[in-house]
């Protein structure tokens, strides 16, 4: 679940793992005598080829940092996808194919109303403990784009 206790717990576990990696590295030392690189997968010894310049090394480190950041982006997108699929399962695709008992608004218009509601909650700092209005808003933005995609494919 995004937001709430599950998210806090996963960040806590990641933090503990990072601390353990650093402690192990400090205790064991760098047995290879190489420079070290910190990546999203831990601390790794690294010896650049002898013909690398400082600029080559800086470019390599920037690439590693970007790949870690890109992985973080991919992880968040995967969590949003799982969140939306689970919500869709629970609510029976009510955002993209509403039942329309009371409201005759289009799915697009209904999603925009829900986004307005989330923005109002964010602005007024009114949210429940078990929800994250930013995640909900992002979910509605994705649903809006999915609705647009469905409309384009049906034309």
Morphology? elongated
* Total beta strand runs: 2
The class by helix and strand makeup works out as mainly alpha
Distinct helical segment count: 4
Low-confidence stretches: 23-34
Indicate how many domains the architecture comprises. Answer: 2
Helix and strand run: HEEHHH
Amino- and carboxy-terminal Cα gap: 35 Å
**Oligomer type:** single chain
The order of strands across the largest sheet is: 1-2
Short description:
With 155 residues, the chain is mostly helical. 66% of the residues lie in helices and 6% in strands.
Please characterize this protein's 3D structure:
- With 155 residues, the protein is mainly alpha-helical.
- It folds into two domains: 1-78, no CATH class; 92-155.
- Helix content is 66%, strand content 6%.
- It is built from four helices and two strands.
- The chain has helices at 4-28, 54-91, 107-123, 133-154; strands at 35-39, 42-46.
- The longest helix has 38 residues, at 54-91.
- Residues 23-34 have low confidence and may be disordered.
Descriptive keywords:
single chain; mainly alpha; two-stranded antiparallel ribbon; 4 helices
Task: Give the topology, please.
Elements: H1 4-28, E1 35-39, E2 42-46, H2 54-91, H3 107-123, H4 133-154
Helix pairs in contact: 2-4, 3-4
